[in-house]
Task: inverse folding
């Protein structure tokens, strides 16, 4: 499937800023399940962009903008050719061994609620379906500090929360797990994309890394674009950064994913 991604982030500041510095993890890489046909990042200011890689192998772009800045728009657009590999993840950079992804983080710590979820499960792959029925997933974002335990206790959350719960549960069972950020044509945000999508990847000795989406209860296929990965969402968030200047900021995110027009007509 040929997917077109249009991701726009708009900042508005109550006071002019003297400098804005942003770290972008918004550029996908080729892998067995996807081929990047085109991809570009544009800014509506005179900006400096410096591309690199982080410790996980994700493509990073450092964005520097000098002020005065009252508003800033970052536009990311590209096309990706995707394939359905049955959730199997191969052809990706793997700087760390699988056991690294057993590390617990504040967002993925296993407590009473996660322990209860996995108590009667023998196969880690059953987690995806068990979790899909345990949490009502709603579109949009939740606070970055929200933990897997919070989401399970309240039985509701975002796609990011559901992914954190799946990761916490898998690690509690001794299964390496990591979070993936990217885009999904038909996920819970379909029709009202206000944020990037999130899901999880679990590792087994027999099959290697495999993707699971607890927000839909299915295995990611050709409607997904994989962008970045990490121990939790803080390692793969699309944008993070700092600014110099007082006042408050207002953030608006608009993410649109569509199949190529020729496919729609076919």
Result:
């Amino acid at each position: 499937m040929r997917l077109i991604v249009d991701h726009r982030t708009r900042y508005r500041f109550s006071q002019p800023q003297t400098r804005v510095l942003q770290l972008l993890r918004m550029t996908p890489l080729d892998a067995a399940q996807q081929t990047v046909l085109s991809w570009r990042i544009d800014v509506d200011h005179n900006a400096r962009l410096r591309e690199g890689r982080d410790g996980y192998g994700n493509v990073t772009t450092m964005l520097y903008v000098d002020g005065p800045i009252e508003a800033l728009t970052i536009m990311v657009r590209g096309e990706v050719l995707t394939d359905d590999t049955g959730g199997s993840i191969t052809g990706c950079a793997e700087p760390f061994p699988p056991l690294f992804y057993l590390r617990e983080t504040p967002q993925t710590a296993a407590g009473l609620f996660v322990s209860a979820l996995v108590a009667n499960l023998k196969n880690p792959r059953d987690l995806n379906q068990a979790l899909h029925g345990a949490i009502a997933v709603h579109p949009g974002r939740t606070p970055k500090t929200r933990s897997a335990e919070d989401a399970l206790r309240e039985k509701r959350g975002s796609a990011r929360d559901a992914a954190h719960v799946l990761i916490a549960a898998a690690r509690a069972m001794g299964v390496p797990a990591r979070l993936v950020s990217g885009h999904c044509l038909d996920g819970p945000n379909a029709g009202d994309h206000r944020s990037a999508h999130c899901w999880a990847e679990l590792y087994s000795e027999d099959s290697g890394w495999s993707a699971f989406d607890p927000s839909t209860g299915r295995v990611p296929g050709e409607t997904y674009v994989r962008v970045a990965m990490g121990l939790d969402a803080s390692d793969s968030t699309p944008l993070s950064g700092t600014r110099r200047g007082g006042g408050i900021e207002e953030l608006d995110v608009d993410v649109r994913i569509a199949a190529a027009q020729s496919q729609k007509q076919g």
